Amino acid sequence: MPVRAAMSRMHAPAPWRRGSRIRAAPSGVAEGTKGPGTVSMELRHVRYFIAVAEELNFGRAAARLHIAQPPLSVQIQALEKDLGVKLFDRTGRRTTLTREGEVFLLEARQICDQVSRARRAVNQAAVGEIGCLRVAGVPYAFAEMLPMVIPRFRLENPNMIVDLREAGTQESLDSLLAGTVDVGFVREGDPVDGLAVLPVRTGRFEAVVPAGHRLAGAGPIEITDLAFEPFVLTARHISPYYYDQTLSALATAGITPHTVIEATSIQAQLGYVACGMGVSLAPTSGTSVSSKYIARVSLKQEIISTELAVAWASGPIPHALDNFLKIVREEAGSGHSAALASGPLESACDDRRISAPCVPPGTGP
Asked: How far is it, in rounded angstroms, from Cα 351 to Cα 274?
C-alpha cells in the first residue's frame, strides 16, 4: 500500500463502532460523538458527568469517583455519543462545559436528587415510616376501637396515609384475602384460612326486647323464655360468625325460630327490636339505639361472643401493619376495651416483616 495512502488512513477520523458494525459518523454530529440512541445512558454516566462538570478536570474527577482517569474519559465519551452532543470543550488548556453541557448539568443534578429522594422513600417504606395503610372496620369499631387507634397511629407515623373505610365483617374478610385491605376490625371469632384473627373485645350475649315487652325489666332469664318469639338477626352474609353463633345458642336451648327478620347491621338489628318487630340476642357492646325503646335482659346461660376482632393476612407482617397492631394491643389492654391475650399477638408481631406497596386512598375496589 502506498505510504501516502496508509498515512491518510491513519489520520482519518475513527470509524464508528457498535458491536461488530462499523459506520460513518452521522452528518451534523460533532467529530468524536455518535448519534442519539446508540449507547444506553445509565445513572453512573450522569454521576460521572456531574463530577467532571464540577471539577472541570478529569484527573480530579477520577480521584473523587475513586476510578482511573482513562475509564472515566471513556464513560464521558459514551454519554456524549448517547446524547449526540459534546458536553465538554477540551480544545484549550482547561476543560470547560459547552452550552449543551451547562443545560445537561441542571437536569443531571435533578435526576440525582430525585434518585436520592426515591431511595429515602423506599427506606422509609421498608421500616413502616411512609406509605399507606388500608383499614376496614364494622360500624361498632368506629365507636369503640378505631377512635383510639387511628389518631395515635397517625401521630406516631406522620408520613403514613390511612385509608379508612366502613365494611361489614364478610366484606372485610374478603378484602383481606384479596389483598385490597391491610387490616380489618370484624365480628369474627373463628379461624379463617389465610388470615390471622385475634379478638380485641369479648362479651356475653344478652336478650334484647322491645321496651314494652313482657320480659322487659325481668331478672336473668332462660333462652327458652324467648321461644315462639319472632327473632331479628344480622344477615349471615354480613356477619357469618355472629349469625351462626346466635342460631347455635338457640339450637342448644332447643329453639328453632319460626320467624326471622334479617338486618344489615347490629345497629339495624336493634332498631328492628326497638320498633317492636321481634326480639334478639346481641353482644353486650354499645349501640346507638336509645335504651328508651329497648330493654336488655341478662341470660342465665353464659354465651361468650367475640364482639370485635382484628384480622390481617397470614404470613410476614409489613412494618406499618406491625406498628399498627402494637398500638391496637396497647389500646385494647388500656382498660378502654377488653385486653388482648399477650401470647398470640406477640408471636404475630415478631421480626417476620416485609416492606409492602400500598394503594393510595380511593384506588381500591
From this structure: 49
